[in-house]
Structures are given as structure tokens and as C-alpha cells.
Amino acid sequence: LREISTLASWTVSSSKPGSSIPQLRHPSTQIFWQSDGPQPHYLNIHFFKLVRIVGLRLYLDFEQDESYTPTKIIFLAGSGMNDLQEWGEMRLESPRGWIWADFSNMPVLRAHLVQIKILENHQNGKDTHLRGLQIF
């Protein structure tokens, strides 16, 4: 599989100073994106050309992040913000490490825009920590 996240432009719904896209994209999982504000939190990943997406994985660490750890995430995709459609969902218990999103039931996705929307956190936490995200 080829990791294609570098081919995209990234935006987030909000972030704490010093915990934004550069920290999320950094190879170290010791630093992270931290949202700042009301849920849902989201990441928009804009590709400059139509891409074929066959896999996506997130790095989460419940042991370090506790209430900042997502429990419900939905994935949307389309050609732009006006035609996003849901194409997957994850429910998480106590994730630790790289977690692959299971899209085995879905057809191959072709999109210009992928949105990852975090709807809920453990212990009703408000903000989110995401330590890594890769798209293949």
C-alpha cells in the first residue's frame, strides 16, 4: 500500500496552539492534534486530484489520553464540501496504537475530499487527541 496523505491539503475544525496539523502529521506519536471547542471535531483532507482510497488508519492511545480519546468517528467523502456522503463508521473501546478503519464491506472509494468527524469521546470528554492519521 502507498501512503498518500502527503498529496493532500489538511484543515481541522479547531486546535490548541502548538497542537495542530504539523503535530498530527509528524512521524512521532508522542505529539498530537488537540481540538479546542465543541463537538463534533473534524479533519478535512483535500486531494488535488481524484484519488483511490483503499485504507485509513489512526493512532490513538487511551492509556495516555483517557477522556481525549474518541469513541465514535464517522468518515465522509466526496468531490467537495457540498456532496459529502458517509462511507464508514468506527466505534472504539480503549484503543492503543495504529487502528485500521474497517471498510471491507465498502466499494473502493474515489474522492477529492475525505472528512473525519469525531462525534464522541471516552468519559464524555470535550476535546480530542489524535496522534496520527494515514491514508493509503
Automatic annotation (TrEMBL):
<dbReference type="InterPro" id="IPR008979">
    <property type="entry name" value="Galactose-bd-like_sf"/>
</dbReference>
<dbReference type="Pfam" id="PF03256">
    <property type="entry name" value="ANAPC10"/>
</dbReference>
<keyword id="KW-0132">Cell division</keyword>
<keyword id="KW-0498">Mitosis</keyword>
<dbReference type="GO" id="GO:0005680">
    <property type="term" value="C:anaphase-promoting complex"/>
</dbReference>
<dbReference type="GO" id="GO:0051301">
    <property type="term" value="P:cell division"/>
</dbReference>
<dbReference type="InterPro" id="IPR016901">
    <property type="entry name" value="APC10/Doc1"/>
</dbReference>
<dbReference type="InterPro" id="IPR004939">
    <property type="entry name" value="APC_su10/DOC_dom"/>
</dbReference>
<feature type="domain" description="DOC">
    <location>
        <begin position="1"/>
        <end position="136"/>
    </location>
</feature>
<dbReference type="GO" id="GO:0031145">
    <property type="term" value="P:anaphase-promoting complex-dependent catabolic process"/>
</dbReference>
<comment type="similarity">
    <text>Belongs to the APC10 family.</text>
</comment>
<keyword id="KW-0131">Cell cycle</keyword>
<keyword id="KW-0833">Ubl conjugation pathway</keyword>
<protein>
    <submittedName>
        <fullName>Galactose-binding like protein</fullName>
    </submittedName>
</protein>
<dbReference type="GO" id="GO:0070979">
    <property type="term" value="P:protein K11-linked ubiquitination"/>
</dbReference>
